[in-house]
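Run: sequence + tryptophan -> complex structure.
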Amino acid sequence: MTDKRGNFGSKIGAVLASAGSAVGLGNVWRFPTEVGNNGGAAFIFIYLICIAVIGIPVMMSEFLIGRHTHANTITAFSKLAPGKWWRIEGIAGVFVAFMILSYYIVISGWTLFYLIESVAGRLQADRDYSEVYSGFVSDPWMPVLAGVTFMALTHFIIAKGVQSGIERFSKIMMPLLLLIIGILVVCSFGMPGSSQGLRFLLKPDFSKLTASVILSAVGQAFFSLSLAMGCLCTYASYFRHDTNLPKTAAGVSVIDTIVAILAGFIIFPAVFSVEEVSVDAGPGLVFITLPSVFNIAFSHVPWLGYIFSSFFYLLLLLAALTSAMSLHESVTAYVLEAFHMSRRKAAIAVSVACMTLGIACSLSFGIWSDVTLFGLNIFELFDFTASKIILPIGGIIICLFTGWHLDKKLVENELTNGGNIRFRLFRLYYFIIRYVAPLAIAAVFLQEILS
Ligand code: TRP
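>> structure
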């Protein structure tokens, strides 16, 4: 059974694929924005605590559920709790992965478009980039075409399977991504205003730390590590029996966090070197502010600006692609196993269904912008429901499931590979997963709902 499902052939492949899932649009644009809005280094400090105390233990839990059952997320929960309502968590996971993928491909498509624009030299001109942005996203054809192309790329990799698709491409794309980040960090440090940007990132302003900032850090940690959605559960179902789960979880979290912080090191010196523009939130930072920044900051050496912006959008595209792969795979693995389909057919079904929803999401920036529910357009509705409602609830359920439902021996066995490796912090882990993490996430959730 295990062999038929496919496995990651190597431990490094498992780490790189999971890191690929984690490192995504969330690191390169969401994290710097959160840092900018929430007090710079003080936010980073709290974020690091969240990763260590909540992120890593929850990731370990997802890993152990997936690796123990060697099944897609829904089957995994059914196997561990036959006939119980815990199965709902698996269903929610697959459902939400599907939903997130539908709108993730929209932003990823924009990234592809900006990469092409940059390589073609069209981001070099002194244009009004907010007009460029709104003109592009509201067009009925171009963003859809870009999203469909991105989906086709993702589909192609998933259809190839676990080892020759996901693992092989992660092994190529992740090192390339890290290399590009290195190049961009060096470029960014050479900019005139870089010291101001660095000071902002490194000098903590603890007066900005309110309860809501701490809670945003928890939320960002969850999103960035791809937790609570069954993505990492599905990937872990392809892990080998000798994969060290605590170490892998720590490794993936460290890579994800380093990438997020380096993205800050790339963006803030650049933004601060240009006085005319301010730190903006959301898509605006990446698609409006940065093109202007690249132009103004590199006006004396345009070729360097060309390289910087092209590499930057390539970085964003690679990050988005490896994350989209994990979202696609968690749905495909379910369809494939539940309906006994071939991988190719299952992947086609998922791609076509996601693309249909994705087109609706894309059009909500243009001709369907007045189709709204509770004041949210289709895109916003998807994002809100998935990341603000189902994601935190899913996180709490995973903690409760591992900490209270699963047998403690099973959990310990899985994390120590049946006693073959040592995991000294097991008791701390168990305490966190039973009490600290679920309560902390519940606090985030209530805060977001109430505000
Ligand atoms: N972690 C990815 C990012 O930072 C996004 C992502 C992929 C994700 N899979 C996920 C977020 C599962 C939540 C749950 O962009």
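>> summary
The CA atoms of residues 180 and 311 lie 7 Å apart. Residues 302-338 form the longest helix (37 residues).
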